[in-house]
Amino acid sequence: MTPIDLRSDTVTLPTEHMQDAMAHAALGDDSRDGDPTVRHLEALAAERTGKEAGLFLPSGTMTNLVALLAHTGRGVEVLLTAGSHISRTEMGGLATLASLFHRELPAPRGAMDLDALREALSPALLRNRLATGLICVETSHNDAGGTVPSLEHMAGVREIAQSRGIPVHIDGARLFNAASALGVKASEIASHGDTVAFCVSKGLSAPIGSLLCGPTPFIERARAFRRMVGGNLRQAGVVAAAGVVALEEMVDRLADDHRVAREIAAGLHDIDARLVEPETVETNIINVDLEASPRLAADWAAALKEQGVLVGPTKPRRLRILTHRHIGSEEAKLALAAFRDVAARFGVEPARVH
Q1: Distance between CA atoms of 221 and 69, rounded to whole angstroms?
Q2: Which residue from 110, 286, 333, 352 could staple onto 321, CB 3.0 to 4.6 Å apart?
Q3: How far apart are CA 113 and CA 312, in angstroms?
């Protein structure tokens, strides 16, 4: 039986159209004269985000690292949302490779506290404070459960940053999920940052790749840093072709993933209301709270795996579920049946019906 894989939307497989496009892509040496398919993808990404230029990179982690390097100098401070992907899961690259300090600011439901931001900013090196080199915001916010800061909030961050002359980078790995949730174009979100990054290898189903978009001089600088960290590519049109299809064909269907996520959240709430608050699910990510369970998240993940359902323990008592194009309503029902069985075994009783 094929597992119901809810660990991440990175498990999505390329579509047949993507595979065909990859097989027939026009190719060149991207680091020399340029790969025509990569150039097409970069231009398309820039157009979709409302920026002047784009840069294709192998991964979201490398994309954020290159953005940090291109925006800053050594020894300045980067302000991040609490639980941000950059500080939590990118292996300390901002310190180890970019020689940057970072500070996490409170971020209720993934939205950076604006008062804390104002207090933390230091536009120059002072005798007791580092200069702020960059502000990074994340949308959708992975650790917060796929939440999406409002456009008004993003505008507030941007206004504060501009008043102090500090750039803003948007880590938009799931930028198009965020745009779908808000009912706006991705460019409306991206307009509140100097630069924006997004992945085509998550819910958009391409096998590899992320894009960094921003002003042309910045992207040319970033292109040099991409080479520095080993991200130079040769005939990269082989994978960039799938990214083109992703942007042209896969964006509109993300709303289906959000719908299925809400179905799963509602079903988990019915099993036990303490597992999930359905109204907190905004995109395709669900954080399952196991504080009421006598068993750890790793135990739940192992038990669910025995029933063909794969989930990710992200904290000792928290599971993460992501929906994607391989998960429809039928898969959601099967996953919920497995959760119901494990909940009964682990002592979490179904919610009472009033």
Answers
A1: 9
A2: 286
A3: 28
CATH number of the domain where residue 332 is located: 3.90.1150.10
If asked whether residues 47 and 72 sit together in one domain, one would say: yes
Name the residue type at position 31: S
Q: Encode pLDDT of 317-331 as tens digits.
A: 999 999 999 999 999
Cβ proximity of 6 and 309 under 8 Å: yes
Q: Is residue 7 part of a domain?
A: no
Cβ count near 131 (within 10 Å): 16
Mark whether 208 and 268 lie in a shared domain: no
Which residue, 212, 103, 114, is CA-closest to 155? 114
Cis peptide before 140 (omega within 30 of 0): yes
Q: Are strands 132-138 and 77-81 parallel, antiparallel or unpaired?
A: parallel
As a whole number of angstroms, the distance between CA 255 and CA 162 comes to: 33
List the strands of the sheet with 53-57, edge to edge. Answer: 53-57, 210-214, 195-199, 168-171, 132-138, 77-81, 101-105
| CA trace torsion 212, 213, 216, 219 (10° rounding) | -10
To which residue do tokens 């395709």 refer? 284
Q: How many domains does the chain have?
A: 2
Averaged pLDDT in 10-residue chunks for the chain of 354 residues: 94 97 96 94 98 98 97 93 93 91 95 97 84 96 97 98 96 98 98 98 97 98 96 95 98 98 98 95 98 95 97 96 98 97 82 43
Same domain, residue pair 311 and 181: no
Contact 103, 80 (CB under 8 A): yes
Query: Do residues 50 and 155 both lie within one domain?
Result: yes
Buried b or exposed e, range 253-288, using 16+ CB within 10 angstroms: ebebbbebbbbbbebbbbbbebbbebeebbbbbbbb
Q: Which domain holds residue 331?
A: 253-345
